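Worked example

This section walks through a single chain of length 432. The input is the sequence exactly as stored; nothing has been trimmed or padded.
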Amino acid sequence: MESRPLTEDKVDNYRWQLGNLELVPLVIGGMGVDISTTELALAAARLGGIGHISDAMVQHVSDRKFETHFTKAKSEKHRATRDGFDKTTVKFDLEHLRQAQINHVRDTMERKRGPGAVFINVMEKLTMGAPGDTLRARLTGALDGGIDGITLSAGLHNGTLRLIEDHPRFRDVKLGPIVSSLRALKIFLKSGSRMNRLPDYVIVEGPLAGGHLGFGEDWRQYELRDIVAEILAFLREEKLDIPVVPAGGIFTGTDAASYLRMGAAALQVATRFTVTEECGLPARVKQDYYRATEADIVVSGVSPTGYPIRLLSYSPCFTSNVKPQCEAFGYLLSREGTCTYIDAYEAAPVDAKGRKLPPGNKVCLCYHFAKFNCFTCGHYVYRLKDTTRRLADGSWQLLTAEHVFRDYQFSTGHRIVLPADPAAATTASVGV
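Given that input, the structure is written out below as tokens.
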């Protein structure tokens, strides 16, 4: 490759050869619940990259998109436990779960156009009262729906591949884990080697990523670039040709190109797409993201998953005292029917009128993700306002996914191209 100054390098100088696909090396991350919508994923595929949808709370997503009634049916079936704290009997109907996943995936794949691909983000931490059975149902539904690739996240996925090794598409679909350390990658490689099924790629997520983090309270001590360099060196040493995809804190095209230059195959990006028209966040929440300052960002232990989670301090979930919503949702219930939010809610004090006060140390993630009350974000969310224009009414202009994708692809020198000024376009249209 010809030598060029790092600041003049750009993503479009590179391509990712993934099987028979030659891709623009940009991947849009799978943000749930339906924040990375079908429309967002399809935009990435049309432009030659990879877009993700997410299977987070997929029954709820199916009900919203296709007028199914999986959530209502589950709630009615388990109504007897609504007012108690023992959720041992609350289980998902596995065929409903598989069908919801098929609905979500098949609709996306039938609409896909262009040279890129669509993957789905599947989280191990959605234990749903029966970890192995429910994970198998979601994975099988994604494969049956025709997904191009499955990204395995939120867990080590040590036994995940065994759940689908008998599926006809097991050898054909692209599979890759999200890891935050070389140790986690080695664990996944060991499990894959037992079935002669190594990953087609690995996403390396650093401590500045959005949502749940694969680090402890010491997350500030880690750097994405260091982790990527360590994993690249290990793969070279072991002569393993597994593409590496860094993620977390990659805010400009120049950031992205610097990782490609050091040997990464592609980059996964997400935060800048939260304020696009195609993103599933409500319009009011997108404006909440735009107004964020660096001081508004917190890494908190409120998630019942046990992972730290990065979100905005003014997220409505923090002040909520909603009772556990396990009958309708219950995506984080352990196999024993427990959840740390249930424990926190049960232990929370009451006010003078006998009403529960907000537990404070935990939130009902299922309910608040369904209502878009958890403003999860990447570390650089406070820079979003620098990527757009402030409108006359004080709001910020939303972007298109294509605009953000192309800016990553072609920009140099850490420059960010602003969208066209709508006021100028209006003035031109009236001949002023």
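What to look for: Residues 6-277+397-417 form a domain with the TIM Barrel fold (CATH 3.20.20.70).
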